[in-house]
Amino acid sequence: xxxxxxxxxxxxxxxxxxxxxxxxxxxxxxxxxxxxxxxxxxxxxxxxxxxxxxxxxxxxxxxxxxxxxxxxxxxxxxxxxxxxxxxxxxxxxxxxxxxxxxxxxxxxxxxxxxxxxxxxxxxx
Length: 124
Fold this sequence. Notes:
Layout: E1 3-7, E2 10-13, E3 18-25, E4 33-39, E5 46-51, E6 59-60, E7 68-73, E8 78-83, E9 92-99, E10 113-114, E11 118-123
Parallel strand pairs: 2-11
Antiparallel strand pairs: 1-3, 3-8, 4-5, 4-9, 5-6, 7-8, 9-10, 9-11
């Protein structure tokens, strides 16, 4: 069983940076593709970024390209989402998810395991 635990959310002002973490247990990172999704208030969940289990180019939503960066620390079995130049519209609950798929898919339905989420709030 794969378990995911997010941490690192919090309050930020527009233009600030935050890093959220996803600790993965039950599988090593080279056996799972990990994605980040978010759910803004009163909106549906949306894809943010993903990193494939075999490495390669990460996948980013257009709304975060150039501002967010996904990375993995295999020694710690942790996936990070570095968020720079934050905007109020980045306010959301951020979830990490894992799948056995090789590709860094943006399709939430392809992910089998989900964390509980961490709140990120960006004020203007």
